[in-house]
Write a structure and sequence with these properties.
Number of helices: 22
CATH architecture of the largest domain: 2-Layer Sandwich
CATH topology of the largest domain: Heat Shock Protein 90
Bound molecules: adenosine-5'-diphosphate
Mean pLDDT: 88
Helix content: 25-40%
Shape: elongated
Low-confidence stretches: none
Strand content: 15-25%
CATH class of the largest domain: Alpha Beta
């Protein structure tokens, strides 16, 4: 093959990233080692996986390991592995460009706080470049498994604007990264420094991490004796490298579980809870599942969340993010599953419809729901934090996993009229416990914000009767309620839709009197309602006297199966065709504005008043006026008319 030497430029983003990284990690430079070891460990995982179908890749060297070395004289540190290695194209692709879509978000999410920023680097996977925090020159020499010795390549860069690539020869497959350490960081070029950083960050890496033993200097030779031949230092393993999940629970401390999580699941914070299970039913497997503290930035956008469940088969790592092991609505769960029954050469396609996977998934789902239930019961405050981070994921459950609907619904938390401010949150079981006499339904309202929900005129009659209403104001709520009709045998009713029948519900002492009174008022208002209806014929499907209102003049009500106005709005804005749904306008005959309207003789003014009544009811509902300018014009006319 022809040898090639070329100079290449970094993508603009790489340069930008390097500068930021050097700056933000300045006070925590030691994480470079964790990042390089993690890359080496991934490379060994990949080789082991590819070798399942092509054993020749192992090239009679099947003991995969990582080696950390240093050279005090040259001022260098090296991290090498006999993993999969890279071809020339792969080096250009992986090291010279940032192909990942997360990079931009990464740059934007840097906070300037070093501890947080350095942890972000792990989360976003731009680890290799952290080498430039301590080095002013980095060489990476690599040969891909299965390639010829002369197909190796040497990448070299000072991290400023570009890199060089040279063809070199390398007998053994794998990758060696050499860091030419900056003067101010020369203290890292030291056996015990490196040793302690490996223990601190990489103890749970499943491949052995080796270092040459540190030998005491040879004794001074006695007079007239030959000096002793120096001993050859031996390679020694530094990390524990045990598969933690294979040990028995009683041998594992909370600290072990936490440090395993941080190293293996790539998080900088402790998890809130975990569940470690050995299952021996039809299928044998071990699972170690963690609930993280914080949602990743792309939890609600990304189709394949990063850092999901890792799949192992008989302790051999098979793949990251085996999304078939968890339903989508639990995609925030991290950890691993180690199966004894799956074949080693399992591929994503095989996972697609596999009995074993389906059974593991069912079992793991139950475990996670159990873990959440436990948290909700025993540590309600921590559960609330969890809900704030991940609640919207759980709301996808009724659509995705009808079988566990009730179980998941137990975990839901909503704002409610029972409390006075946003974020106090209640569960459905608590709602049920507070139901009024005669109440057999769960009432809720959807809106696009807490204040829109809690100020909605629809709540008036409920407040009056002391009936609690759930205030749902997340976008997914309206969608979720399509799949979620009842809980514990009680059906859900949107208070902004359809007819409302609250007879005999709530504070009912004077109900029959009140009812008769209302009916009388409604009958008296009939002529007025007819007049309004004639004006609003085109824009409403009906106008009627309201049973919901006590203090507002009017409100709009959607049909039982119609979508809420604020949702229609949202979908329209996103470019969806929406079928025309005309609302019902309900008016409150006892309200002084209606009295005013009734006395209005001028038919033009009457029409203006009627339109304004509909407009403001639409606005209160989070709807948008088809003719905003017309609304303003009408309102101004009416103001002016007040002078007359
Ligand atoms: P990440 O590891 O998060 O993907 P990095 O910037 O650390 O991001 O590495 C970029 C890519 O370079 C890796 O995804 C991998 O393909 C390749 N790479 C890095 N180090 C090694 C290595 N030691 N052996 C093989 N490939 C490597």
């Amino acid at each position: 093959m022809e040898t090639m030497s070329e100079e290449m430029k970094f993508e603009a983003e790489v340069s930008q990233l390097l500068q930021l990284m050097i700056h933000s990690l300045y006070s925590n430079p030691e994480i470079f080692l964790r990042e390089l070891i993690s890359n080496s460990s991934d490379a060994c995982d990949k080789l082991r996986f590819e070798a399942v179908s092509d054993a020749s890749l192992l090239e009679s060297d099947s003991d995969l390991s990582i080696q950390v070395g240093f050279d005090t004289e040259a001022g260098t540190i090296t991290v090498s592995d006999n993993g999969i290695g890279m071809s020339r194209e792969e080096v250009v692709q992986n090291i010279g460009t940032i192909a990942k879509s997360g990079t931009k978000q990464f740059l934007e999410s840097l906070t300037g706080d070093q501890k947080t920023d350095s942890a972000l680097i792990g989360q976003f996977g731009v680890g290799f470049y952290s080498a430039f925090v301590i080095a002013d020159k980095v060489d990476l020499q690599t040969r891909r498994a299965g390639a010829n010795a002369d197909e190796a390549v040497l990448w070299s860069s000072d991290g400023t604007g570009g890199y060089s690539l040279d063809s070199v020869s390398q007998e053994k497959r794998g990758t060696t990264v050499t860091l030419h350490v900056k003067d101010e960081h020369k203290n890292y070029v030291d056996h015990w420094q490196l040793h302690s950083i490996v223990k601190k960050y990489s103890d749970h890496v499943t491949f052995p991490i080796m270092m040459l033993e540190q030998l005491p200097p040879p004794p001074e030779p006695e007079e007239g004796e030959e000096p002793e031949a120096p001993k050859e230092p031996q390679l020694q393993q530094v990390n524990a490298a045990s598969a933690l999940w294979t040990r028995s629970k009683s041998d594992i401390s909370d600290e072990d579980y936490q440090s395993f999580y941080k190293q293996v699941c790539n998080d900088y914070e402790d998890p809130i809870a975990w569940s470690h299970n050995r299952v021996e039913g039809n299928y044998e497997y071990t699972s170690l599942l963690y609930l993280p503290k914080r949602a990743p930035f792309d939890l609600y956008e990304s189709m394949t969340p990063k850092n999901g469940i890792k799949l192992f088969v008989q302790r051999v790592f098979i793949m990251d993010e085996a999304e078939k092991l968890m339903p989508r609505y639990l995609r925030f769960v991290r950890g691993l599953v180690d199966s004894n029954d799956l074949p080693l050469n399992v591929s994503r396609e095989i996972l697609q419809d596999n009995k074993i996977i389906a059974s593991i998934r069912r079992g793991s789902t139950k475990k996670v729901l159990g873990m959440l239930n436990d948290l909700a019961e025993k540590k309600p405050e921590e559960y609330k934090d969890f809900w704030t981070q991940f609640g919207n994921c759980l709301k996808e459950a009724p659509g995705e996993d009808p079988g566990n609907k009730e179980e998941v619904a137990k975990l839901y938390r909503f704002d409610t009229t029972h409390t006075s401010s946003e974020g106090e949150l209640t569960g459905l079981d608590d709602y049920l416990a507070r139901m009024q006499t005669g109440q057999d339904k769960i009432y809720y309202i959807t809106a696009d914000s807490y204040s829109a929900a809690s100020n909605s005129p629809h709540l008036e009659i409920f407040r009056d009767k002391g009936i609690e209403v759930l205030l749902m104001h997340d976008r997914v709520d309206e969608w979720m309620m399509n799949y979620f009709n009842e809980y514990d045998g009680k059906s859900f009713v949107s208070i902004a839709k359809g007819d409302l029948d609250l007879d005999g519900v709530g504070m009912a002492s004077d109900d029959s009197e009140k009812k008769a009174e209302k009916e009388k008022q409604a009958a008296e208002a009939e002529p007025l309602i007819k007049r309004i209806k004639a004006v609003l014929e085109e824009d409403t499907s009906d106008v009627r006297a309201s049973t919901r209102l006590t203090s507002s003049p009017a409100c709009v009500v959607m049909g039982e199966h119609d979508m809420a106005l604020h949702m229609q709005q949202l979908l329209k804005q996103a470019g969806h065709e929406m079928p025309e749904t005309k609302p019902v306008l309900e008016v409150n005959p006892t309200h002084p504005i209606l009295g005013l309207l009734d006395r209005e003789q001028d038919e033009d003014k009457f029409a203006n008043w009627s339109r304004l009544l509909l407009d403001q009811a639409m606005l209160a509902e989070g709807g948008q006026l088809a003719d905003g300018a017309g609304f303003v014009k009408r309102m101004n006319e009416m103001f002016m008319a007040m002078q007359d």
